[in-house]
Amino acid sequence: MRLSLLVIGKTTDRHVQALIDDYSSRLTHYVPFSIDVIPELRSTRALTMEQQKTMEAELIKKQLQPADYVVLLDEHGTERRSMDFATWLQKRMNTGARRIVFIVGGPYGFDPSIHALAKEEISLSQMTFSHQLIRLIFVEQLYRAHTILRGEPYHHE
After folding, report:
1. Domain coordinates of the chain in residue numbers?
2. Residue 151 in contact with residue 121, Cβ under 8 Å?
3. In what helix (H) or strand (E) does residue 70 lie, and over which residues does it extend?
4. Residue 48 CB burial class (10 angstroms; 0-12, 13-18, ≥19)
5. According to DSSP H, which parts of 64-152 are helical?
6. CA–CA gap between residue 109 and residue 128 (Å, rounded)
7. Which stretch of DSSP H or E encloses residue 46?
8. Which of 14, 35, 49, 132 is close enough to 108 for a disulfide, judged by CB 3.0 to 4.6 Å?
9. pLDDT averaged over the chain?
10. CATH number of the domain at 2-150, please?
11. What distances in angstroms separate CA 140 from CA 6, 26, 155, one per listed residue?
12. Alpha carbon of 121 to those of 64, 69, 78: distances in Å?
């Protein structure tokens, strides 16, 4: 079982990137994990939101494999507490999927074709966060979920 976080564009804040790297490193002690970055589209001023989402969708699809369990990180998805997310993750990992791919979309969200590929959608909060921070928050939650599943003292409840 592998976990992958697929994102569009680099993290530009070096402090945020350092924290992402820290949690990613911790996470790899539990499970193979990668962050795969799709380069941001260039010259988007002439594109409509829909055109941009369509172009991003094509780049996302190139990164996916037919057997992937695709989960979108989307504001309209299901919210879970950390303990519930850990349980959800364990169930997904027990199904035998070779790779779970979590995807953070571009600035305008996902093209309908990507929504159609997704098995599930998860919301991290009702609040809106920058794409930079979502990466950090989500990687920390993946790490937290694994410590919960192992009964380690990181999470307090």
Report:
1. 2-150
2. no
3. strand 69-79
4. exposed
5. 82-94, 112-117, 131-150
6. 12
7. none
8. 49
9. 95
10. 3.40.1280.10
11. 15, 9, 11
12. 16, 11, 6
What is the pLDDT, as a whole number, of residue 131?
87
- How far is the C-alpha of 84 from the C-alpha of 104, rounded, in Å? 21
Question: Does the pLDDT of residue 42 top 90, yes or no?
Answer: no
Alpha-carbon span 89 to 102, nearest angstrom: 12
Which tokens is 7 given? Answer: 């994102």
| Low-confidence winner among 32-36, 90-94, 129-133 (lowest mean pLDDT) | 129-133
Whole-angstrom CA distances from 33 to 2, 26, 133 are 6, 10, 18
DSSP 39: P
Question: Greatest CA separation found in the chain?
Answer: 51
pLDDT in tens, 65-102: 999 999 999 999 999 999 999 999 999 999 988 999 99
**What amino acid is encoded at 59 in this protein?**
L
